[in-house]
Amino acid sequence: MSNEHPDKKVEGTRHHHDDYEQRIYYLENEIKRIIDLLKECCDKGKHCDNEKYYEKEKSACHACRTTELVKNGGFEVPGDGENTFKFWTIEIIEVENGNQQQQQQAAKRQEELASIGATDDSYEGVVAAQFTTEGSAERTEKKARIFQEVPVTSGCLYRLSFAENFLPLLGDFDFGELTARVYYTGPDSTQYDLIKIFIRHDPGFEPIPTGYTYHQKVADAPVPCTVSTVTVEFLFNISDIGGQDPDNEWHIDGVSLRSEYATAICCS
Ligand SMILES: [Ca+2]
Q1: 170 C-alpha vs ligand 1 centroid, how far in Å?
Q2: For 99-108, how does the pLDDT look when each residue is reduced to its tens digit (9 = 90+)?
């Protein structure tokens, strides 16, 4: 490397001393510029080795709300129009079993085979949601789901809790299944479970009067960094003939989804 500044030959009048000071001045400014760039990088949450800036980014971007996220989780507020409960959507699910003719008949009468409405057999407050099977010519699975979309914070770990009360006609059912899930839906419409609680009862199950059972579970993993909405869903499935009074019923109440911690994993 030459000890002469390349511009010196052109200008021809600059002394070695001036050239040296100019280089120092240039280098000082360059170092200052690089430090500023690094600070800016850290402030934007980009990769940075500076622990101080990393911690600042972490705490600023990943606070988890620990308040209740499910709306009308106690089913106390009735819906308007077609909705039985405000903020909840109810869907009767077609079941494919038996031969084609049976399937067609089943599909036709599916709306009559199951329903979700309100009951005063509550776990808290005065109302709960009630899944009821209706009479069928033969033993048939009867399915319905009730669900709502819930905005969540990426990186937070959530806990689902609820209470359920299964009230079957003793012996008059093949099985009863309740699947409580918190899941998010991927770009390809695939559903990914964060929390799943599966409850099954077989014949011989004898319910205790007013016997609600409380369940809770913390998610296996935090909400992925690209996800901002999850679905809280309860899927009922009872196989029976039904058609008697009282029918087979399953009640749920006190649905809650809360962040387990106030802080989350870092999503930068
Ligand atoms: Ca309630």
Answers
A1: 26
A2: 555 555 555 5
